[in-house]
Amino acid sequence: MKRRLHSSMPLLIFILLLALIWEAATSWLAIPHYIIPRLSDVLVSTWDNRLLLGKHFAVTLGESLLGLSFSILFGTLAAMCIEGSSLAKKTLYPLIVASQTIPIIALSPIMVMWFGYEIWSKAAVVILFTFFPIAVNTTDGFRSADSGIGEVMRSMNAKKHQLFLKWKLPSALPGFFTGLKMAATISVGGATLGEWLGGEAGLGMYTKRASSMLRGEAVFSGVLLLSLMGILLFMAAQALEQAFLSKRQS
User: Fold this and answer.
1) Domain 34-249, architecture per CATH
2) Rounded distance between C-alpha atoms, residue 172 and residue 154, angstroms
3) What is the pLDDT of residues 114-125, one digit of tens each?
């Protein structure tokens, strides 16, 4: 615990310094509260509206996790198809890459038209954000498998499923978790965008309503909680990575 606290000290000091600069600059420059509120006002607003913010936080978190779960499933299956089939490698992989040339924000309203204003439209937008990093990084993980190990296993008459489970799949785990950490953080942005386009609850809707009423401190409260959510999801993905890769190394 002491070692972790010591290693985190520079970050904590830096965050404290930024907080002091924020509070002092907004007061000294007399910036209007609807543009940049004082940090103390943001914290007071967060505490005063903690119950309402907690409900919106839970809604956005649920949307992020639902969409991220589908991206993990579909992204992993896509990577397995690309790795196992030369035809999929020539057709599916280029399509996945080409799909990123389409602005996601342009597709988001279509998701609302197809799935309505329920949680599924927000989950669909999250999938648009998070499918690509998981699929591509997992595919790269499969490609990084040591060919020497595969040759040794083939010389020992290893079957196809044994090659996949004991050679390809373990080699793909680092790439998969790299994509998962990226997807976990941006899933929050996808859920927020879905709420902006059409939603009745969630931190995205909360900040949208607060912005229309020029309540800068409420907007920043929602933004800080969205940032916190992204950090927590990243840390969860990182903890899963450490758990799985430590078992692999042992």
Assistant:
1) Orthogonal Bundle (1.10)
2) 19
3) 877 788 888 988
